[in-house]
Design goal:
Largest sheet of chain B: 6 strands, parallel
Helix content of chain A: 25-40%
Distance between the termini of chain B: 58 Å
CATH class of one domain in chain A: Alpha Beta
Oligomer: heterodimer
Shape of chain B: elongated
Number of strands of chain A: 12
CATH architecture of one domain in chain A: 3-Layer(aba) Sandwich
Shape of chain A: globular
CATH topology of one domain in chain A: Rossmann fold
Radius of gyration of chain A: 24 Å
Number of strands of chain B: 12
Strand content of chain B: 5-15%
CATH superfamily of one domain in chain A: NagB/RpiA/CoA transferase-like
Largest interface: A-B, 97 and 116 residues
Chain lengths: 260, 490
């Protein structure tokens, strides 16, 4: 189905008429409006906007269109904590969300993964296709009856049957205890970290930033897919009582690899 | 069918009774008021704690306000950019001027998918266009998947809040609804057990229904991405398992850049639920082969929004990111709950948004549903000056009434006209004082207080007493002062 173009045109015509009207009112009643302050008209349009994918050619470019980059941003961009304090803040925040956190050195990682899997009492695990073999081999060797199912196009039913999932992560944000997935081959498809009830996430210390703006600073190219995870699935819809595990994984375990 | 008379809240602004009338059922329902107050107290306490720990809270608010202002000021530009980028990434963008058009587009898309069932992420915009009853009438079952929305849908209840829509329903009421509708006789009223029941009830639906509908918290113009903020994981289920995805979003939801999320995401969860970050935030861009839906549609809804843009002051209404902090802090909302606002958007933001979406043709009582205390402005993460807009809208309502003959039948209007006449003539004023004094003497008890008045006066005395008039007026005392020794008024 094609949307009838008149609707699109009508909406743009209304917006154009409304924004022009407002701009005229604003310039005739100077200083009475708080709207529109914060940037000056001599800012230049963002250079990157015309190019890029989509071949975007603006036809509704008003003279006031400028880059939103030049808007006032006086909030805290960079954290002040030492690396050690940043990592302990991340651990503290994760634990506040009832996530289990263990630390290890890069050399200890395979054994630590195996220990976590063994302690979970579960046996059927899925892992994304980019998972390093070393992460899986030790556990498979140590734990009897352990089953690894690598996601080379697993069906939903196969993922649903898994008891747990092991993935890497893109970034950790200490301020809010957030784990960010950009769904690379080592982080897995979105559904992979969703259906299994138990999620073990491997986060390297060098991936941890203190503030959310620092994470965005690490993304020169915006991701096409991203999931920000802050603790296990939860709800407070019944009398504001926090209940863990509604639809997503009920258990979030994090192994923090001290690689710094 | 008169739903209001049957005690069922009406959330269609074209049909809802005026606010003071709609508020009465709640004011007379102590259980409901208790449920609302409890939920609000919990959120407020958590929010206050987390906002206090943020050293740059005010700077974040200023930045968010500037970003939203900028996006609205250049809305046409950013919408076009969003459309181009989303289309390039494999999405299909549709435009709906009003609710009817949006419903028709969504129905047509569902027909193309041969859908008889659809799963839904919580979206207030779909409630705004009354999508569920429309789909039901067209033979398509829409299943809400957010816990609060399931409670409302199964219990045939209406949302009373935009973030926790079922906050007016307590655990034993939820137990009753679930036991009845899910056929679980032995269900306990423990929130954990109730949540588990919802999980089990929905799991099969997630795994089998191949079409989903969502709202959007943000649209990113720079990338054509859509962002959904949630807690439970039902959103992630709907975003990843189905083959086809339809997102309904108001045209005002657009943000210029991906990086703008660094401001919004720091403010939203703290303001909405008192968390540093909500458990799950999902961002997707069009269609990604091998991950998630194969077909993705965005329906961009105007439905009165573009008309709000025209006034540079009222425009700030559209900056809203739907955190509900304003209703959580509002002393009026606390007493009346959400249903009294006769709209899916209650509270202070609803009081300014609803009448404007209705182009001031309905919901004119809402701008008066406020004490203008300013608490909503203080907590708003994008600095919407709600009291300022409320006053502007009151002026518009007054202007509308100026031309109406009906006002001559309004006792308030007539009373003020008469008062105007009396206060502008000294002799009339003295005469009114004289006769008023005589008249009120019949109602003044021995203790010097008036406990009840008839007719319009009862509106005052039914909730509080009125002190009887002193035996002498100030004018009388002043005139008598020089010639006689001063007497104390009794």
């Amino acid at each position: 189905m094609n949307t009838p173009p008149p609707s699109r045109q009508r909406i743009f015509a209304r917006i154009r008429a409304a924004t022009q009207l407002a701009a005229e009112t604003r310039s005739s009643v100077k200083g009475t409006s708080s709207v529109g302050q914060g940037f000056s008209p001599d800012n230049k349009p963002a250079q990157s906007m015309g190019a890029g994918r989509g071949g975007f050619q603006p036809t509704h470019l008003s003279p006031e269109v400028i880059s939103s980059e030049s808007l006032p941003r006086t909030y805290i961009r960079h954290g002040q904590l030492s690396p050690a304090a940043r990592i302990s803040l991340m651990i503290e925040r994760l634990r506040e969300y009832d996530a289990e956190v263990v630390e290890c050195s890069p050399e200890e990682l395979p054994n630590t993964i195996a220990a976590q899997l063994a302690a979970s009492g579960k046996h059927k695990f899925v892992a994304p296709p980019g998972t390093p073999a070393a992460w899986m081999v030790t556990a498979a060797w140590q734990i009897q009856g352990l089953e690894w199912n690598i996601d080379h196009g697993l069906t939903t039913a196969e993922i649903e049957q898994a008891e747990g999932v092991v993935t890497a992560a893109f970034c950790g944000v200490a301020d809010s205890g957030t784990i960010v997935l950009h769904h690379s081959p080592a982080e897995g498809r979105r559904v992979l970290t969703l259906l299994p009830d138990w999620h073990l996430c491997i986060l390297r210390a060098s991936q941890i930033v203190e503030t959310l703006p620092e994470y965005f600073h690490r993304c020169p190219q915006p991701p096409a897919l991203a999931t920000w995870i802050s603790g296990p699935s939860a709800t407070a819809d019944i009398e504001m009582t926090r209940i863990k595990g509604v639809h997503g994984p009920r258990f979030l375990h994090v192994i923090l690899v001290r690689d710094e | 069918m008169n739903l209001a008379a049957a005690g069922h809240p009406v959330l269609d602004p074209t049909l809802a009774p005026p606010f003071p009338q709609a508020a009465l059922p709640v004011l007379r329902n102590p259980q409901l008021r208790k449920n609302v107050a409890h939920a609000i107290d919990v959120i407020q306490a958590k929010r206050a704690k987390l906002v206090a720990e943020k050293a740059d809270w005010q700077e974040l608010r200023s930045a968010a306000s500037a970003i939203r202002d900028h996006a609205l000021e250049n809305l046409g530009y950013y919408l076009e950019q969003f459309e181009a980028r989303c289309t390039a990434a494999g999405g299909v963008v549709h435009w709906a001027t009003d609710a009817a058009e949006a419903r028709a587009i969504i129905l047509e898309l569902l027909r193309q998918e041969n859908a008889s069932e659809v799963i839904k992420i919580k979206t207030m915009t779909s409630a705004e266009i009354q999508l569920n009853p429309f789909l039901e009438a067209a033979g398509i079952s829409a299943y809400e998947t957010d816990l609060a929305e399931i409670i409302l849908q199964l219990g045939d209840e209406e949302p009373s809040h935009i973030v926790v829509p079922a906050l007016h329903i307590n655990r034993s009421q939820v137990r009753e609804i679930f036991a009845r509708r899910m056929g679980l006789k032995d269900l306990s009223d423990d929130p954990q057990a109730l949540t588990n029941a919802a999980r089990t009830w929905l799991r099969q639906k997630f795994l089998t229904i191949p079409t989903a509908i969502s709202g959007a918290n943000f649209l990113i113009a720079e990338t054509g991405s859509v962002v959904v903020v949630e807690s439970e994981g039902n959103g992630r289920m709907c975003l990843t398992l189905p083959r086809a995805m339809i997102t309904l979003a108001g045209i005002e939801k657009v943000l210029p850049r991906f990086q703008d999320l660094e401001v919004m995401l720091q403010l939203l969860a703290r303001s909405a639920t008192g968390e540093r970050m909500n458990p799950y935030t999902s961002l997707w861009t069009g269609v990604t082969p091998g991950d998630g839906p194969e077909r993705f549609h965005v329906v961009l809804l105007d439905n009165g929004r573009s008309s709000i843009l025209a006034s540079s002051r009222e425009r700030q209404t559209l900056k809203c990111i739907r955190c509900a902090a304003c209703m959580n802090t509002c002393p009026v909302y606390r007493q009346t709950g959400g249903h009294a606002y006769g709209s899916v958007y209650p509270g202070p933001i609803g009081a300014i948004l609803t009448p404007q979406l209705m182009r001031m043709q309905h919901a004119q009582s809402l701008p008066y549903a406020s004490s203008l205390c300013g608490a909503c402005y203080e907590v708003c993460p994008v600095k919407i000056n709600i009291p300022e807009v409320l006053l502007d809208l009151r002026a518009l309502v007054t202007d509308q009434e100026r031309g109406q003959f009906r006002r001559f039948l309004d006792p308030m209007y007539l009373g003020l006209r008469i008062a105007n006449l009396i206060f502008s003539r000294a002799w009339l004023f003295h005469a009114a004082q004289f006769f008023g004094r005589i008249g009120l003497r019949f109602f003044t008890r021995k203790d010097g207080w008036i406990h009840s008045l008839p007719s319009l006066g009862a509106k005052w005395t039914q909730t509080r007493d009125l002190r009887g008039l002193p035996s002498q007026t100030f004018h009388g005392w002043w005139a008598a002062r020089g010639s006689k020794p001063m007497k104390e008024a009794k």
